[in-house]
Amino acid sequence: MDANQISLICKALGDPNRLKIVQMLSGCEKCACVILERFNITQPTLSHHMKILCGCRLINVRKEGKWSHYSLNCETLREFQAFIGSLECVKLSECSDGRCCER
């Protein structure tokens, strides 16, 4: 996953409604109508949020007739989790010479 893709995901998750939508989709697929019931937003606003989440490949959409069903894109989520997991937090006092280490 490159920096541009990570940036798109971070921007998408920067909106509280989109973050809540992703949380809702954790573990199961949901119809857009179910997602819409949980928020005080209009259908066009939900469509806008879903377009952004699909655009960064964080969620998948499956059409069934006139209904849209959304689920997490596990591959993208795993790659994003791996990126987050690769980050290290080191206190400056833990560096041997008081400066950040070079790798």
Q: What can be said about this structure in brief?
A:
The protein has 103 residues and is of the alpha+beta class. It has helices at residues 3-13, 16-25, 32-37, 43-55, 74-86, and strands spanning 30-31, 59-64, 67-72.
Structure, described:
- The chain is an alpha+beta fold and 103 residues long.
- Helix content is 51%, strand content 14%.
- It has helices at residues 3-13, 16-25, 32-37, 43-55, 74-86, and strands spanning 30-31, 59-64, 67-72.
- It has a three-stranded antiparallel beta sheet.
- Helix 1 runs antiparallel to helix 4.
- The longest helix has 13 residues, at 43-55.
- Find the count of extended strands (DSSP E, 2+ residues): 3
* Percent of residues in beta strands: 5-15%
Uncertain parts: none
CA radius of gyration is 18 Å
Query: Roughly what percent helix?
Result: 40-55%
Order of strands in the sheet with the most strands? 1-3-2
Judged by helices, strands and strand pairing, the structural class is alpha+beta
How would the global form be characterised? elongated
Can you give the mean pLDDT? 91
What is the overall number of helices? 5
**Main sheet summary:** 3 strands, antiparallel
Instruction: Give the terminus-to-terminus CA distance.
Output: 20 Å
Give me the strand/helix succession. Answer: HHEHHEEH
